Amino acid sequence: MLDAVVKRRLVFVTGKGGVGRTAATLALALAATRRKRRVLVVEVNPFGRMGEYLGDRTLGPEPLEVLPGLSAAAIVPDVILEGFLAGFLRFRRLAHRLLESTSFRAVAAAAPGLEDFLTLLEIARWERARAGLRRPRFDLVLVDAPATGHSVPLLGTPRSLLKMLPFGPLARSARDLALLLDDPARTAAVLVALPEEMAVNESLELATALMRLGVAILPPVVNAVAPLRFTRAEGRRLTAEPPDLPPGLARYAAAGRFSLARQRAAERQIRRLGEGLDARPFLLPQVPAHPFGPASVEQLADAFAGAGAARPRRRAS
Amino acid sequence: MSGVSPLRRAGAGTAANGALASILARQRLIVCVGSGGVGKTTIAAAIGIAAARRGRRTAVLTIDPARRLQDALGIRTSAGVPHRVTLPPPPAPPGGSLDAMILDTKRTFDGLIRRYAPSPEAAERVLQNRIYQSLSSALAGSQEYMAMERMHELVEEGGYDLLVVDTPPTHHALDFFEAPDRLSALLSSRAAAIFQNPALVLTGEGSRLAQTLLAAVLRGLERFTGLTLLRELADLAGGLDEYSEGFRARAAAVAGMLRAPATSYVLVTTPEPARVAETLALRRELVRSGLPVSGLVLNRTLPAEVALPPAPDVVPPLASPPDLALARKLVAVHRRYVHVWEQERAQIAALAEAVAPAPSVELPLEPVEPTTLARLAALAERLLQP
Questions:
Q1: Mean pLDDT: which of B114-128, B165-179, B192-206 is highest?
Q2: pTM confidence score
Q3: Could A165 and B225 be called an inter-chain contact, meaning their C-beta atoms sit closer than 8 Å?
Q4: Range of the domain at B88
Q5: Which end of chain A is more exposed for a tag (fewer CB within 10 A), N or C?
Q6: Which residues of A fall within a CB distance of 8 Å from B326?
């Protein structure tokens, strides 16, 4: 999983709302820094919680190094719009004045896909950014992309824009973007799901939509998989009538059966996801969610890094 | 109807389920509100089934772009069109039925254009405009606006006793309810005039130099973009200008519907602390804008029986290694459930207190998701049964 990610330059992490995209993005990023990659994570959702997960950092439009080798930035629509207008009008003050006008904001809101387009341009700018002559500033740009409903239009923006504006400088940028997004060697998407039927349904639909857009898809990530598993024999004992439990544990029968039923349902969905995408899903263990902070991210990064990998900060004991 | 229902367990008002039933029996519009991923669509479907079972001619409109209700109700192919749901036995009483449909934003928008167009030719001009074509499905707020429009149409002209809708996941509840206002503001004549002469943006705010400069630069926009984007926008805005009266009247009618006494808002949430905090914020926003909450559905709460207090008696020594392994797992599983249960109870108590006297209903988590009609119907029973 991590191998496939660190080979790319630009990876979009997407999936159904509430499946833990932000957590998975940060964990992948952290795991990649342990492979000596300089990583930038980009938060697209203006109401996102990436800063919180990083230990209450405030993310801004400029990349900020939050951990050794890991930088984070947030897409701020007003800032990229102002930057775009300034480049266009040549006067930042004028751009600023325009942005203050409510009527202009209405006009800008009506320009279909403008914000999405500018978001992608900004992401591509970071992907291209250099530190020095040849070295890229970031080896890997990981995007905490919006949920399914918005990710598909976002990634489809260059193409829809090309349909509307086949010529001119905007069209050139759109074509460059489409080339970047379509290039499986540079760009890919990671789908995050939960081991639940509806989340898996949505992942399968999302995969179809992304493939249609020409975006390469890496093996999916299933988040919040319960680490505890009952074996087959234990399952038989729990479901026997009456349950065949160790002496003194009859009170735990309901808890055991419930957990077993959830485990079986989850395994069914993980299998379905794997078959549907023809790839082996990567399973992320459930970690304590409240509060979800840097320690939780690190636990997930451990999982991505794998058992044999170096774990510099943890496991010292 | 029985007066007091036996409490299955301590906690948020299981006794109040009867009150939810009376909302189903009385109201004309029920709007399910909640954060993303809490099961709004599922609950909307279950409420629809429950109402049909009570003899009401019911429709469920889902706005969910992920089309989850379609899976359960079997309406995968017919976007925008009502689909009669065949309810599992027992049969609904006479008059009781359920139609389900998915919002088709573009189709609803097209319908609105046709309705208010001064002539069929004028309507065609707008419908053929390329900017309109992408705007009608992509414009922020248009989905919400069209949901409102379709709700109004179904309530007024659909011939239903009750319409149940789920709302799209928004960061703020009011993004949804204010969308009509925002869209009509956009379509107002001032915005239209700006499309035609973008320099008007600076009228009254800028120096003459700035205005002249901007006008010149914007005139260059067409050359820059290499296409007649601005002219098409102006055409569209000019075209839509003729509709703004109709749109405004419609927005006012929709606003009236949202505040009508026959309209109820049901909050849907799961008991995780983060969701509960969002739900409390949503409730405050709704109340502040005069949209009172008439019920709370707590979805996917942990069943009480999995979190029984641990046995006080001494556990006898375990003989075999398999017994030991299973015992360790059971104890671990149980300990986790007890922890979750305690956390949930505190959250649920805070929520129930916040929405009181509106009723709260708990729907316990099932090992398997309610993605089939039979399971949805069972959920509907739970909504109504004490």
A1: B114-128
A2: 0.82
A3: yes
A4: 14-187+246-304+316-384
A5: C
A6: 230, 234, 237, 245-246
Q: A89 contacts in B (CB within 8 Å)? A: 214, 217
* Least confidently predicted of A93-107, A268-282, B43-57, B242-256: A93-107
* Residue B209 contacts A, CB cutoff 8 Å: no
Is residue B251 located within the same domain as residue B149? yes
pLDDT in tens, B136-193: 655 545 667 778 888 888 998 889 999 999 887 665 666 667 766 666 665 554 555 5
Share of chain A above pLDDT 90, in %: 62
B 281-320 residues inside an 8 A Cβ radius of A: 303, 305-308, 310-311, 313-316, 318
**Is B180 found in the same domain as B193?**
no
ipTM: 0.79
Q: What is the pLDDT of residue A107?
A: 56
In what side-by-side order are the strands of the sheet with B97-102? B83-84, B97-102, B57-62, B162-166, B29-33, B263-269, B293-301, B360-364
Q: Is residue A246 part of a domain?
A: no
Does any domain span residue A251?
A: no
Enclosing domain of residue A129: 2-227+279-305
Pair B265, B279: CB distance under 8 Å: no
* Statement to judge: residues B234 and B138 lie in one domain: no
